[in-house]
Design goal:
By secondary structure, the protein is mainly α. It has helices spanning 3-7, 11-23, 27-40, 45-57, 61-74, 79-91, 95-109. It has seven helices and no strands.
Length: 120
């Protein structure tokens, strides 16, 4: 398949195409499409997060870590990115770093409980 196929169409069409490849577990192809999207719209978190997931599932853990850290620079409270980063670090044998990210992900994913009403 030529490189033109991956770059063909609007950003929305490429996003949809990447999703189809990701859902089909064609992670390398999805990453190839998503890398172009991320380059085009670096401020968008969703394509970068899906790119990180594609890298993770295709065992390109260094690249996954880089993308996840970029997501967290833009959105430090993105709990799923923290969870993915923790899992990525675990797969790299970096358990101490992973534990920190996993604890943060757990804390960020919890719904705050409502305070009891104040009565006099």
């Amino acid at each position: 398949m030529s490189d033109g196929y991956y770059e063909f169409g609007t950003a929305a069409e490429r996003w949809e195409r990447a999703g189809f490849f990701f859902d089909a577990k064609e992670y390398v192809t999805a990453a190839r499409i998503l890398a172009g999207l991320v380059e085009e719209v670096p401020e968008q978190v969703a394509p970068r997060l899906l790119l990180a997931r594609a890298y993770y599932h295709s065992a390109r853990l260094g690249r996954a870590e880089t993308e996840l850290r970029a997501v967290l620079e833009r959105d430090p409270v993105e709990h799923y990115a923290r969870l993915m980063l923790g899992r990525t670090l675990e797969r790299q044998g970096r358990q101490t770093e992973a534990d920190t990210q996993l604890r943060l992900a757990d804390a960020l994913s919890r719904t705050p409980t409502a305070s009891p009403p104040i009565t006099s």
